[in-house]
Write a structure and sequence with these properties.
With 326 residues, the protein is of the alpha/beta class. It has twelve helices and eleven strands. A seven-stranded mixed beta sheet has the order 3-2-1-4-5-10-11, with helices on both faces. It has a four-stranded parallel beta sheet with strand order 7-8-6-9, with helices on both faces. Strand 1, helix 1 and strand 2 form a beta-alpha-beta unit. The longest helix has 22 residues. It binds adenosine-5'-diphosphate (ADP). Adenosine-5'-diphosphate binds next to helix 4.
Length: 326
């Protein structure tokens, strides 16, 4: 295998707080180990259009505390075609980039896996998504910050919910994963969480009402994961209006608020460790793995495993929420 002298770094797909801390860590660890670094702008789009710039240590100064990504992010349809990836490969070679570090979610890592297989390019992935839905890592970069943003919002909504004695459905992100909704509900003291992992098994609304939901309370908060499987918060509010008209129902959709903000200490440390480990992995000759953390140890997770396997929700967490919300 030829020696790797220059790495390219990009952030792709949905942005997540802590991506900048990861860019900083990858850049500095690479330079520390004698590698050249090139920043690729707007995810795979920049690889296709050649928006690439050399990064020195000072390019990543003063960014560890910033939300978003200084490299920008985008969704790139062209990269989903063999022709688009061919152009990306040619640009990479033209720039002298020998390996890629990709920070993103399952879509971005799927793209990395396909690209790595097609062109025999070493690719290392970092889990960057607020959804925490990548298998093989305890948490993903951005998840803890998003969770804290949710807590802040729910605490505020609770004030008004209590004053008006209302039932609030608060929609949080999560696509097909209920981590934000479930742990957000536990941490904010919400009464329930409606998550995709359970939606297909039981009618969660019916369960809530049947179990004496709100028996001893004058207001309630239910977190709902935004997902085609749950149907989202509006769907549940409509159902309550129709099926249980006694409740005074309101909906708040937290939306993109959850993606922003300064990363928490947890996310900054996670991003720094994973970023440094990405360079260790490259120096060791690893390729086509996502760097994760499992029981506080760095682990290398093959792309196929990280993407394909559903990360299970712990039943224990579902029980904790149920027991503590009586
Ligand atoms: P995330 O990484 O947050 O899950 P997306 O699913 O939008 O975000 O994926 C980000 C980008 O990754 C896409 O815009 C596309 O460029 C690339 N990508 C996703 N899936 C594929 C695929 N099957 N083949 C090639 N590239 C892909």
């Amino acid at each position: 295998m030829p020696a790797i002298k220059c790495i390219g770094i990009l952030t792709s797909g949905g942005d997540a707080p802590g991506m900048n801390a990861a860019i900083r860590a990858v850049t500095r660890a690479a330079i520390y180990n004698g590698l050249q670094v090139k920043g690729i702008y707007r995810g795979y789009k920049g690889l296709v259009t050649g928006e690439i710039k050399e990064f020195k240590s000072q390019n990543v100064s003063n960014i560890i505390q910033l939300g978003g990504t200084i490299l920008k992010t985008a969704r790139c349809k062209e990269f989903c075609t063999p022709e688009g990836r061919q152009i990306a490969y040619e640009n990479m070679k033209k720039e002298g980039i020998d390996a890629l570090v990709i920070i993103g979610g399952d879509g971005s890592l799927t793209g990395a896996r396909i690209f790595a297989e097609e062109f025999d390019v070493p690719c290392i992935g970092l889990p960057g998504t607020i959804d925490n839905d990548l298998f093989g890592t305890d948490t993903t970069i951005g998840y803890d910050t998003a969770l804290n943003t949710i807590l802040d919002a729910v605490d505020k909504i609770r004030d008004t919910a209590t004053s008006h004695e209302r039932l609030f459905f608060i929609e949080v992100m999560g696509r097909d994963a209920g981590f934000l909704a479930l742990n957000g509900a536990i941490a904010s003291g919400a009464e329930a969480a409606i998550i995709p992992e359970i939606s297909t098994e039981v009618d969660q609304l019916e369960e809530l009402i049947k179990n004496g939901f709100r028996k001893s309370k004058n207001s309630s908060i239910v977190l709902v994961a935004e997902s085609p499987i749950t149907g989202g918060a509006m769907h549940y509010a409509e159902r309550v209006k129709n099926e249980y008209p006694g409740y005074d129902v309101r909906v708040t959709i937290l939306g993109h608020l959850q993606r922003g903000g300064s990363p928490t200490a947890h996310d900054r440390i996670l991003a720094s460790r994973l970023g440094a480990a990405a360079i260790d992995a490259i120096m060791e000759g690893q390729r086509n793995v996502m760097i994760g953390i499992d029981h506080d140890e760095i682990v290398y997770v093959p792309f196929t495993k990280a993407i394909k396997n559903d990360k299970p929700i712990k039943k224990e967490l579902v029980n904790v929420l149920r027991e503590l919300s009586i």
